[in-house]
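Quick illustration, no need to memorize.
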Amino acid sequence: MNIQFFFPQKTSLENRSNLKLFIQSIFKKEKTKGQFINIIFCSDDFLLNINKEYLNHDYPTDIITFEISRDLNGITAEIYISVDSVTRNSIDYQSTKKNELHRVIFHGILHLCGYKDKTKEDIALMRSKEDKYLNLYFK
């Protein structure tokens, strides 16, 4: 699996090699095959423009996950994360920026593994999965 990080918006992301291995382990545990995953860290404005252009949503968000393709070789996807939103969320949820950044990364990966966040039940399951993988990653 090829996982790449891109930083149009500068942010601190430590232990990238370990994080890539951990993301691969999430796919394996969730019985999903990843192939090429690009994770792009951007600004609120950049992500708002993507939200408007591709999803017809005129509001900010912290993450957008695009599954580009899925075949026998696995999933090809791009995950866009607003560093600005992650910073605000860390304050709002009384968490560290590092923890919130990883939560959002895992959230995007979980979307690729088939998890949704539209209903209360979906949100509760997604949150429990995020917590599970955060605890495993930071133990």
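The chain has one domain: 2-137.
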